[in-house]
Amino acid sequence: FRENHALTTCVALLLGMTQEVHSMFNFRGFRWARAMIHAIQEVNNRLDILPNITLGYHIYDTCFTTSKTVEGTLAYLTGQNETMPNFRCSAGAPLVAVIGAGGSTLTIASSRIVGLYYFPEVGYASSCSVLSDKYQFPSFLRTIPNDNHQSLAMAELVRHFGWVWIGTIAADDDYGKYGIKYFKQNVEKSGICIAFSETIPKIFSREKILAVVEAIKESTANIIVVYSSDIDLSPLMEEIANSNITGKTWIASEAWVTSALIAKPEYFSFLGGTIGFGVRRGDIPGLKDFLLDVHPDNAASDDLTIEFWQTAFNCTWPNSTVPYNTDFRINVTGRESGVHPVSDQLCTGKEKLEDIKNTYLDVSELRITYNVYKAVFTVAHALNNLDTCVEGNGPFPKNSCLMYYLKNVKFTTFDNELVKIDDNGDVYASYDIINWQLNETGEISFVKIGIYNDTKDGHEMKIYNNDSIFWNTPTLKSMPKSIKKYFMYLTDARECFPCPDDYCSNTLKNECVLKEVEFLAYDEALGTTLVAVSLFGACIVLSVTIVYRIHRDTAVVKANDRGLSFLIQLSLVITLLTSFLFVGKPKEWSCQIRQVTLALGFSLCLSCILGKTIALLLTYRGSKLNAAEKHDHISMQSFHQKLLVLISMIIEVCICTAYLTCIPPYVYKNMEFQNVKIILECNEGSIEFLCTMFGFDVFLAVLCFITAFIARKLPDNFNEAKFITFGMLVFFIVWISFVPAYLSTRGKFKVVVEIFAILASSFGLLGCIFLPKRYIILLKPERNTEEIISGKATTNDN
Ligand code: TCR
User: Fold this and answer.
1) What is the annotated signal peptide range for this record (predicted)?
2) Rounded to two decimals, what is the model's pTM?
């Protein structure tokens, strides 16, 4: 029976979208397609692999677009759409695998689809690191190494030459973005600086390309790392040539290092000396002849071959419906200028391929082509290994057979290269380090100057001979083999240093500038408002004190211990005014006293309130006594109250002193959240001490609440206990909501949250404890009598 293969390869057509100057047919892609056919024929002819089985294939053009890729993948899987008649397999032949797609972005799209069915996809050029994730792409494997190795290799190269100041350019796709990201992570660890990071647009846009050119021009970095496919890169290189940017050394990723699209002799003054990484090459036996053996006469209904012929010879094939270089998308985008007019010259069929120089026929740098070959053989060998396994009943995951054998494939190629797929579907990484030099015939030659291999323990990089490298620097050009030039080159690359802590680099990255310091200042709106509110609060408290003083002999005032009331007023002023310590530039002293003052203020306030509530409870008991006893009782009580306040204050002072002497707070320059800003804040030193200090306040508050709650039903002075209960509730609500709010804010707003809580709780207490009484004293003097207070008519013993 026959098996089908699909090569979702990137051929033709889309070049017109991104390129005006190049023909729209992708000769390189066509070579890959032909190499696949060649490999399949080899498998079919060989007796040692799949002796009784013939492999067939479908070819789908992805046109470099995700939509076409998805369309092709689905068409292949479902057999719904047979648009390429010449490549159709006989109906009913089982589908085996997808080979492709070209670029990683396309492969990610198609591999997600085939992955659903656990249907194998073997990539030959998709090198993006995410494809190694077997949760996302369970059925993907590849014959090109994962790009992480290449990014590491580039970083190693940069370190090897001692460069510390480099620019990066990435294509706007998964290949470019992931490649550059991993590269940056690696070099930044060794203190190498990135001068600029630019992205080349996927859809041609002159403005965006000029912006990249501008960045290159303005930067002092002479080393530029480019992660991009040749097709995306070529419009940029054209502009580089137009703007005459020389003296840069380009570090090439595998996708453009040997591309004829970029390595044009007329670009040599800009790009000469480029160093890059190429995957292992292999000279496939018989491929050249096979490539030459292409003719529309032998493929009458094959649109690709006809289009190839028309483009290669700039003629129109008679009676064909295949448009000559007219891609309808060009009309859609309105960029007519890229359309070549239909050539009125008819093809004779006698044109000689041997006579033309064409990327398609260039077999000197077969790297990706060799990967295509390996991909076909990976599938063939895996098929060969499964003799007894029945698909769907296989003993392997998801009852599949083929995936199991694919993941365990191991074979040697004609080159004696061992191809072995690992658990992630990856192959062993080995790169040639390539340098662009001009040869005698005036063309760019790709000279191998070293190798990079992934080994069991790390990796090894070898540069054979520094002297053999051509450098594209003004001083080195004339004597490319001199070691001296190499050192002069080093001085060309600017050194860079990390900026000191309080500084960060400016946008040009050539100077360190002082970082912006952030804190809650007095003169900003928020700071001023908060301070004003706290001052306002302090004034109210003061006015209460004055009212109390003036009416000191009235019943309401006397009913409470005047001393205690005064202490509460004092403590509220203290807490309200601590907000001044929180606003403004944090200093060592303000950091140290602000929390302590606050805690002391609150403990004074709360212990006085506690004294009051306890007194209320006891007064009830005392109300059954006679007058003389009552007098004693009340003075005893007053003494006990003051003792209580004193003891609480002593405890709190001890805690505070211990805190300040053991682990005091200090000013802290927080740079964790923002790189360009320093947040000046107080570090609280010891959280444990801080919690103990405020914990004691909480303890007092809880006691106040409980006693007030018990006392709230007792007949007392103007519902005092009720108001205190209410005040304590406010206090708790404020501080409980403070905790999450405080923990979830950053920078100066942390301080704002704390001031808010201070103000809210102080106003709460003030409002609940003093305002009702002030109301009675000032506005309802008729109620300000003993009778009302104790609820019955008794004479006042005081
Ligand atoms: N990986 C690229 C695509 C790509 C490519 C190439 C395209 C690579 N090498 C050579 C054309 C020619 C390497 C990707 O997207 O993963």
Assistant:
1) 1-23
2) 0.61
